[in-house]
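S1.2 Input.
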Amino acid sequence: MTIDPETKLSYMTELINTHEAKSRLSEIIRKVENGADVAVARNGKPVVRIIPWAANKTKTPGAWEGLVTYNGSSNDAIGSDEDIQQMFEESVSSEL
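S1.3 Output.
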């Protein structure tokens, strides 16, 4: 894809002015849904790009439970609270 260095838009991008965008919004939305690249310009300079909405993927809590192992075990990857406290105290007392 070739990009115009001045506008940073693809040469495939349809550039429309704000008045036209207001008048033809429904049509522009259909174009974007069908894969068109559309940017809206004010005074000939692009100010926004209209892009399709990407649906959020629902994440299931705990979906990876039991599937990830660290060092061959499913134990805590970073150690116990006591281990972490000791590492912190050692880092604070060491000279940089």
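S1.4 Remarks. Residues 14-50 form a domain with the YefM-like fold fold (CATH 3.40.1620).
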